[in-house]
Design brief:
By secondary structure, this protein is an alpha+beta fold. The chain has a single domain (52-320), classed as Catalase HpII,  Chain A, domain 1, CATH 2.40.180.10. It is built from seven helices and nine strands. The chain has helices at 15-39, 146-155, 163-171, 173-186, 233-244, 294-304, 322-338, and strands at residues 53-64, 82-91, 105-112, 131-136, 198-199, 204-206, 209-217, 247-255, 279-286. Strands 1, 2, 3, 4, 5, 6, 7, 8 and 9 form a nine-stranded antiparallel beta sheet that branches. A hairpin with a 2-residue loop joins strand 6 and strand 7 (209-217). Helix 1 (15-39) packs across helix 7 (322-338). The protein is globular. The protein starts with 14 loop residues before the first helix and ends with a helix. This is Catalase. InterPro entries: Catalase_sf. Decomposes hydrogen peroxide into water and oxygen; serves to protect cells from the toxic effects of hydrogen peroxide.
């Protein structure tokens, strides 16, 4: 394994040329955000994706393993370190659809590496003082890169009954089938968020090592006897679970192997565990609580107001790959709209 044999390839051959393309793509995504606002008859724009928050807490704890491998001891990820975390669970749709609708689900974690990070100076950007980890409960993206992602989203705005045909005309039959299969397999109704596995899908640089990361239920997690249904089923199930005990996940990393088996630029290629076995590095704990208490509602509102972006991270955890690079611009511009800053 040669972890130094990795590369990023910029659209147009340079960061400047790629950024010019990204500006065009960001404009298309913001147009979709505005179209969704009008379709939902909302006064203000919502998040471009993951509009409905299922649950949010601000006092989760991430404890780094005491036996953390040396190569992963980077920045605030030190053996035995304890980090405060906010956690947002969401449905992936750009519309606030019910929990019992087939959809992908997401988890976003905001870490505060040190005490100073909780109260950054007004002149300093938040991204210098937090570390966001974003994941979805399907291992790979339907889109290989930013252009494919935006084209798919634009085509999805048209009539549903001709979507597959339009997709085939744009990408070819084989690629269109791959993308549709990805979305169909990923869109489902899980029994419990606490039993779901979440993946970063794209890579980030972890010190000197490119990795993908994932979040898995801790050993011993099991289904509740009571079954939940309805538009807030996932929240109700999580609330019931947290009223009885902690919800615990394990954070793991997959190392880059080579550009064939673990590509940086193609977000649609899975990093197979046979090629790069996940290495557990930390435990995320959401402690027992009432989501419906005054404190529970206060924390939920605080998380609802937070913007999450993979580029909210120290330089030693820089996101990698085309699809991640465009997120820096699109997520930032989208957040400025839904937070009412423009």
């Amino acid at each position: 394994m040669d972890i130094g044999n990795w590369q990023e390839a910029y659209d147009g051959g340079s960061p400047e040329a790629e950024n010019a393309l990204f500006l065009q793509l960001a404009g298309k995504m913001l147009d979709i955000q505005e179209a969704n606002r009008k379709a939902s008859r909302r006064e203000h724009a919502d998040r471009t994706l993951h509009a409905k928050m299922i649950a949010g807490v601000t006092d989760a704890v991430l404890v780094v393993d005491a036996a953390l491998p040396d190569e992963f001891q980077v920045g605030h990820f030190r053996a035995g370190a304890t980090l405060r975390a906010a956690v947002r669970f969401s449905n992936a749709s750009p519309f606030a659809q019910p929990d019992n609708s087939p959809d992908m689900r997401g988890v976003a974690i905001k870490l505060w590496p040190d005490a100073r990070a909780s109260q950054p100076q007004q002149s300093e950007p938040e991204s210098q003082h937090v570390h966001d980890l974003l994941m979805t409960n399907y291992p790979v993206s339907h889109a290989r890169n930013a252009t494919q992602f935006v084209d798919f989203a634009v085509l999805a705005q048209g009539p549903r009954d001709t979507f597959a045909e339009r997709l085939s005309q744009r990408f070819g039959e084989s690629e269109a089938r791959r993308m549709l299969d990805n979305v169909r397999h990923g869109a489902r109704v899980p029994e419990s968020l606490a039993l779901e596995r979440f993946w970063s899908r794209g890579a980030i640089l972890w010190g000197a090592v490119p990795v993908r990361f994932e979040l898995c239920p801790a050993h011993g997690a099991s289904a509740l006897a009571k079954k939940f249904d309805g538009e807030n089923a996932l929240r109700d199930e999580l609330a019931q679970r947290l009223s009885k005990g902690d919800v615990v996940f394990r954070l793991a990393l997959q190392r880059f192997v080579d550009e064939v088996r673990t590509p940086i630029e193609d977000a649609a290629v899975p990093w197979q565990e046979a090629d790069s076995p996940p290495v557990d590095i930390a435990t995320l704990t959401i402690s027992r609580r009432s989501l419906d208490s005054d404190e529970g509602r206060r924390q939920a509102q605080a998380v609802a107001d937070m913007a999450f972006n993979p580029w909210n991270a120290p330089a030693s955890f820089r996101p990698l790959g085309n699809l991640n690079r465009v997120r820096r611009l699109v997520y930032g511009e989208s957040a400025r709209r839904w937070q009412g800053r423009s």
